[in-house]
Amino acid sequence: MAKPVVIVVGADKGGVGKTTVCRTLLDYFSVNKVQTRAFDTESPRGTLKRFHSDITEIVDMTTTADQMRIFDTLNAGLSVTVIDVRAGLLSVALNSLRDIGFLDSVKSGQITFAVFHILGPSIASLDEIAETSNFMNGAKYFLVKNFINDTQFFQWDQSTYDSYFRRIKGATELTIPKLNEMAYEQVEVASVSFVNFVANKGPLDEIANYSFVLRGYVRHWLANVWSEYDRINLTDVTGATSRPRSSET
Question: Domain of life, per the record (predicted)?
C-alpha cells in the first residue's frame, strides 16, 4: 500500500487566501484523478466545505478527538489528505503534529508530508518562515505568494534572502496569480469549485447559467495556477498515482 500523503495549507497571518489555495489543490488533484479528502479547520462554520462539500469535513484541530479523526484514518486507502488550517493556527498545528509523533513518522519515511505556507506581504512573514522551517525535517516545504487579494509583496534584498531562504533546504517558491475580481466574486456567490464553475455546473451538478466571460477568466487563471503545480511535479511529490487530465479544463 502506498504511504499516506498529508498536505497542510496555512499561515499564522489571516487574510492571505489559504482556502483559495486549498480549493485549487483539490481541483488539481480531482482533474488528475488523484483520490483526495479534505479537512476544514475553520470550526464550526467552515469555508472550504462550502466549495467541496462532498470530500470535506469540518474539524477543530485543537481537540484530541478531531486530531484522531484526521490522523487515525490516514491508512484509509485515500491518496492525499489536504488540511486547510485556519488563520493563526499553523504554528499550533505543527506543534501538535510534533507532540503526537506525526513528524517523527515523516522523518522516518512512513508518511509523505507537504506544507504550503501562504505568505503575507509584511516582514512578519519572514519570521513565520523561520519558525515553520524548524518543523520541516523530512517534509516538502512550499512558500506561496498568493496574489488573489491583490497583495503587493515586499521585495527581499539579497542579505534577507540569504538569511531566511537559503538556510531552508529544499524549500520551493510558488506564485498564485490574481484572478479577475468579478470572476472571483461570482464563484464565491455560486459556492462551487472552480472546476465546476468553468464547466457551468451548479452546487448539485445541475446545468447552471454562469457568464461565458467570467468562466473564461477562471479557466485561464486556473490553467496558470496548475502550471505552477505541474512545474513542481506535484503529483510526483505526493507520490500519488495520476492520469492525464482532460484538455477541456
Answer: Bacteria
